Amino acid sequence: MMESKWVWFIIIGVMLSVLEDSLTDACLKHERVALLHLKPFFNHFNYLYKWDEEKGWDCCRWEGVECNTTTTTTTTGRLIRLSLNSTRGYNMGDWYLNASLFHPFKGLNSLNLSYNSIAGFLENQGIEKLSRLDNLETLDLSYNSWRNNTLFHMGALSSLKTLNFRGNLVEGNLLHIQEAFSSVKTLSLQGQLSDPDNELVKVGNGNFLPYLSPKVQLKAISGTFPVWSLENNTKLQELVLKGNSFRGHLSFSSAPNFDLSLMDMSDNKLQGQIPSNNMFNFSTFEMLFLSKNAFEGNIPPCLNGMKDLSFLDLSNNHLSGRVPQELIMNSSFSILRLSNNNLCGNVVPAILKANKLRNLYLDGNNFSGEMPNVDVSTFRFPTSLQEIDLSNNKLYGKLPRWIGNISYLERLALSNNNFEGCIPMEFCNLNTLEFLQLSQNNLSGSIPSCFNPPNIEHVHLHGNRLSGPLSFALYNSSSLVTLDLGGNNLTGTIPKWIGTLSSLSVLFLRANHLQGRIPI
Ligand SMILES: *[C@@H]1O[C@H](CO)[C@@H](O)[C@H](O)[C@H]1NC(C)=O
Ligand SMILES: *[C@@H]1O[C@H](CO)[C@@H](O)[C@H](O)[C@H]1NC(C)=O
Ligand SMILES: *[C@@H]1O[C@H](CO)[C@@H](O)[C@H](O)[C@H]1NC(C)=O
Ligand SMILES: *[C@@H]1O[C@H](CO)[C@@H](O)[C@H](O)[C@H]1NC(C)=O
Ligand SMILES: *[C@@H]1O[C@H](CO)[C@@H](O)[C@H](O)[C@H]1NC(C)=O
Ligand SMILES: *[C@@H]1O[C@H](CO)[C@@H](O)[C@H](O)[C@H]1NC(C)=O
Ligand SMILES: *[C@@H]1O[C@H](CO)[C@@H](O)[C@H](O)[C@H]1NC(C)=O
Ligand SMILES: *[C@@H]1O[C@H](CO)[C@@H](O)[C@H](O)[C@H]1NC(C)=O
Ligand SMILES: *[C@@H]1O[C@H](CO)[C@@H](O)[C@H](O)[C@H]1NC(C)=O
Ligand SMILES: *[C@@H]1O[C@H](CO)[C@@H](O)[C@H](O)[C@H]1NC(C)=O
Ligand SMILES: *[C@@H]1O[C@H](CO)[C@@H](O)[C@H](O)[C@H]1NC(C)=O
Ligand SMILES: *[C@H]1O[C@@H](CO)[C@H](O)[C@@H](O)[C@@H]1NC(C)=O
């Protein structure tokens, strides 16, 4: 008995060691050994204790390790992704990494070293040491203590496509490091750690996040607009220099001739007019963000000539004058944001003919005009609209009934204008509405009792002259989070159904003539 048991052990042992390097789902031995050499440097707080101790010899099943299951040869290696992010622990003190430890991973495609307090490589090693990894396409070095010199040598990584360098200790004038980015397709040099992330994402439905995620990021960069970043870099597709301190005019010394589809210069200190000559005719632009600068003057009509431009953000500048009508009517935009400037004129006729616009933000300007009431049975509506923000302007007149025909409207903000009259019954047709803000107008009459959009989340109606009892409007709105009806002339008792709104967390009813208690 004893003897045969030992024989089995030996046979299994031999089989394992023979199969080990050829099993399709198992890691290669030399890669496992290399991982075990790395482990002590990244195992603070015992993050990686499971690696060999619990998960056994198949390193492809270890935390943060991903293998290519279709690789059969040992020439490229099997390990393709290594995520060592946050494995060192915060505040462990800066340290220097031995780049040679990564050399065995010949097939490595993606390496994540973020949040590890790495200050650099060991003496006589530069980032170029990693250039032996000729399959490396994604490198995340964010939130460490890398300094300037790392960036200077980034060019050595010829296979690199995406580099995240956010939150490191790089500063100074960028002019010297341009050659470092010759192969990187996405260049993003973003501002301080404390900057709120991608404020723009909030305006839409979040779909733009992937475009905006910073890929290369530096701290506190200043100077004039870095024309060089475009001129000798014809492969560049996205330029994100958001949240820095670039000053002066946005200007180009020669007719642009490149592949740029996204430019984000928002949150800088650029000033002067937005260039209007053909120097700014980027026919390849799909997204252009110039918000939070000090641009002044009129919006140049040439922006309308960028036929593929779908997202334009000029908000939070000092732009004045009228908006070229075509910008709203005939452009290819799906998102147009001109909020918080000094723009004026009657924008209503253009809005009525908005063709492809999905999100329109014109809030915080000096726009005037009256919303006309038209024959709802024949009028062609701007049906593409999903979000409209016209708040903080000087619009007036009655709320038009045709708003109820904008079938996919999700957000409607008209607060702080001079609208008057009733909330039309047709608003009850807005079945996709999530956000309604009509506060600080002169609206009167009662809230239509049929108003119960199934997905409504926020309703702001304060500061009007709405009257009558709270009938059955919103009584069924389990998604309602905010209900602000303060400062109106509502009467009657507070209905019991308010206590049954399961998501409600903000309720303002003050400054009305309502009676009774708020049911809890
Ligand atoms: C996996 O390996 C196969 C064969 O070597 C290769 O064609 C493929 O590109 C590899 N996949 C990745 C994601 O590296
Ligand atoms: C590392 O990053 C990946 C991807 O974001 C994440 O899923 C994982 O939890 C992170 N690891 C640690 C230890 O935080
Ligand atoms: C790297 O890890 C960080 C932290 O977990 C994560 O936010 C980031 O998305 C990861 N990067 C990649 C390229 O997966
Ligand atoms: C760096 O790692 C390599 C490979 O493991 C090793 O041969 C070398 O001695 C290490 N260098 C230092 C300075 O520790
Ligand atoms: C672009 O390249 C040309 C030719 O190599 C060179 O003369 C010029 O200075 C470069 N421009 C910039 C801004 O680096
Ligand atoms: C912009 O460039 C496109 C093609 O590159 C051209 O057809 C168009 O006429 C130009 N527009 C202006 C205003 O220069
Ligand atoms: C804008 O579109 C309207 C029809 O929708 C058309 O009549 C008008 O000519 C267009 N204007 C321009 C400048 O293309
Ligand atoms: C707003 O426009 C009106 C004319 O419609 C003008 O009288 C007023 O000065 C403008 N206000 C601002 C702040 O530009
Ligand atoms: C607009 O909505 C009304 C109902 O409020 C409907 O009678 C009318 O046919 C709609 N018009 C169009 C063009 O869809
Ligand atoms: C509000 O509308 C009423 C008429 O319905 C009018 O008398 C009043 O002046 C308006 N108030 C303001 C502030 O426009
Ligand atoms: C509120 O409604 C009452 C009648 O219900 C009316 O007498 C009063 O003038 C209204 N107040 C305001 C500010 O509209
Ligand atoms: C990066 O290092 C700092 C301090 O070490 C210098 O002040 C910067 O000028 C330098 N930046 C560049 C681009 O060389």
UniProtKB/TrEMBL annotation:
<feature type="signal peptide">
    <location>
        <begin position="1"/>
        <end position="24"/>
    </location>
</feature>
<keyword id="KW-0433">Leucine-rich repeat</keyword>
<dbReference type="InterPro" id="IPR013210">
    <property type="entry name" value="LRR_N_plant-typ"/>
</dbReference>
<dbReference type="InterPro" id="IPR001611">
    <property type="entry name" value="Leu-rich_rpt"/>
</dbReference>
<dbReference type="Pfam" id="PF08263">
    <property type="entry name" value="LRRNT_2"/>
</dbReference>
<feature type="domain" description="Leucine-rich repeat-containing N-terminal plant-type">
    <location>
        <begin position="29"/>
        <end position="68"/>
    </location>
</feature>
<dbReference type="Pfam" id="PF13855">
    <property type="entry name" value="LRR_8"/>
</dbReference>
<keyword id="KW-0677">Repeat</keyword>
<dbReference type="InterPro" id="IPR032675">
    <property type="entry name" value="LRR_dom_sf"/>
</dbReference>
<dbReference type="Pfam" id="PF00560">
    <property type="entry name" value="LRR_1"/>
</dbReference>
<dbReference type="InterPro" id="IPR051824">
    <property type="entry name" value="LRR_Rcpt-Like_S/T_Kinase"/>
</dbReference>
<protein>
    <recommendedName>
        <fullName>Leucine-rich repeat-containing N-terminal plant-type domain-containing protein</fullName>
    </recommendedName>
</protein>
<keyword id="KW-0732">Signal</keyword>
